[in-house]
Amino acid sequence: MKIVVNPSQIQIPQLSDQELCDLRQARLLLEQPTLAMRMTQHLGRPVERVMEAMPRIIRATIETSSVVALRQATRVATWTLNKKQVRPSSEGFHQVALLVSGGMGGTLGLATLIWELPLSTTLMLRSIADIARSEGHSLRSPETLTSCLEVFAMEGGAESHPEQSHHYWAVRLALAKAVSEATVALAGAQAAKGATIAFTRLISVVAARFGLILSQQAAAKMVPLIGAAGGMAVNLLFIRHFQNMARGHFIIRRLEKKYGTEAMKTLYRSVALPI
Fold first, then answer.
1. Alpha carbon distance 148, 134 (integer Å)
2. What is the pTM of this model?
3. What are the residue boundaries of the structural domains of the chain, listed by start?
């Protein structure tokens, strides 16, 4: 492997053509317009404006429910996945499952939020784990589980703003301490109590960001006359967002294992995006 040393003394690896293509794809996925921006384009009115009119009790319910949903999802999401075999991910299957959930939610309105949230979160976490496995990450690894949870905190960023290229790494930095503690606790031989405390702390940190994205989703469903079809469309945007974040994230994680985090940060910021 050819190594080039830049002025900051970080060793920059020479990626293969395929790895460079993967890195470019990862950055494109991670820096796509945010979920709120895409829902605004779909609905024809700013989601943020609808959120301002959302009753505080609904937002509080979403914030509280997001913690419960993430905790429940981690218990059941990977049960039906083969934890050893690496195979292509099934994004389409999970999209259809969430479309059914979204159709029911769109018909019955926000009254379904409490029961729909754990279900949709579990489906999304299962899809995220499926993508992680397809990128060669072991689902038996605590590091993979905590990395899957990281995805729920990722909002993406508008490509038209160069500073957004730092957003992905900023999110990971904000979660780094909680992720590290949870990974070590889950991998260690210490009693379950320590692992539970560390894992609960990680879920709480992730839920603070995930709750905002959930509020945007709920706000989109509050648009008058959105109906079942609109609910399904919002859920499709929702799961595609996290699938894209997961694909980009686990491509980066795969390359990090080979080349190191600092080298990947430098390469990520320098790689050219398709025009």
1. 13
2. 0.84
3. 37-248
